Amino acid sequence: MKPAAFDYVAPRTVDEALNALGATRHDVRVLAGGQSLILEMHLQRIRPDLVVDINRVAELDRLSVNDGTVEIGALVRHGVFESPQAVPGPLGRLFALAAVNIAHPPIRACGTMVGSLAWAHPASEWCAIALALDAAIEVRSTGGAREIAARDYFRGPLQTARARDELITSVRFPLPADDTGVGFIEHRRTHFCFAQVAVAATLTVHDGLISDARIGLVNCADRPIRAHAAEQVLIGCEITVPAVGNRLPGGHPFVRAGRIAADQDAAPLAEPYADPEYRRQVIAVLVGRTLRQAAEGVLQ
């Protein structure tokens, strides 16, 4: 199939892009990497009246660290984050663990983190990480700018709090403390499939006890979710992992957290090759393993 006919503009400034977005009441789409948008247009599941290509807006291709936060512009590509040095400290390590799970190198060279947030697919790695780490999403329109907390942004599959005429210009993440451990593990049928389940986790430890835990779940509901119930089980627990072997004892806090995440936090939907009960089992196992990975980073 071929895309339906559409108008196309390629602005060179944010203001030009905003004017284009606000100029029509019909379906308008923003093109950055286009890995999802182009496929949907090709299959004519999306038939936009106007495509606004922002790739020439140089001011959106920026990554900066200020006052304990990292700000990532709308044109920063997935591939940038494959290097743990792209962002300082534990956040850079977490991004690197996640980035290599995104599709394959050509996609990572073109697609963007902000584009993933705009698309809001339940299987997006970045969406779950943004939710778990309390990221803030900056959107702009001709009427001004506003900030949307990640916890308020995701409304459902491919549904967000962003208005039709708003452009996401950047996303900001708070930088975790240097003594924070991070983990990310993904399960999928083949290397190039969407995640059936993935888990992002951070652990902060004081005096040997877990003082903060954050768990983001990928493709475990109709939107990215944060495993609040599982996190609460971990607060105040001693951080220990077996010296050898891969299996945690059944009563270990990480195992309990995995079961709670699967039973109370997640709401997995049936999909080919993975019914809800199978996915709950995977969630429980992956949460425990990801927490262990984060703990090992703290204990090194």
UniProtKB/TrEMBL annotation:
Keywords, sorted A to Z: FAD, Flavoprotein, Oxidoreductase
Domain of life: Bacteria
Enzyme class: oxidoreductase
Gene3D superfamilies listed in its UniProt record: 3.30.465.10, CO dehydrogenase flavoprotein, C-terminal domain (3.30.390.50), Uridine Diphospho-n-acetylenolpyruvylglucosamine Reductase, domain 2 (3.30.43.10)
Protein name: Carbon-monoxide dehydrogenase medium subunit
InterPro entries: CO_DH_flav_C (IPR005107), CO_DH_flav_C_dom_sf (IPR036683), Diverse_Substr_Oxidored (IPR051312), FAD-bd_PCMH (IPR016166), FAD-bd_PCMH-like_sf (IPR036318), FAD-bd_PCMH_sub1 (IPR016167), FAD-bd_PCMH_sub2 (IPR016169), Mopterin_DH_FAD-bd (IPR002346)
Species of provenance: Streptosporangium album
EC number assigned by the record: 1.2.7.4
GO molecular function: anaerobic carbon-monoxide dehydrogenase activity; FAD binding
UniProt entry tagged with the keyword Oxidoreductase: yes
Domain FAD-binding PCMH-type: 1-178
Record keyword Flavoprotein present: yes
Spans traversing the lipid bilayer: none
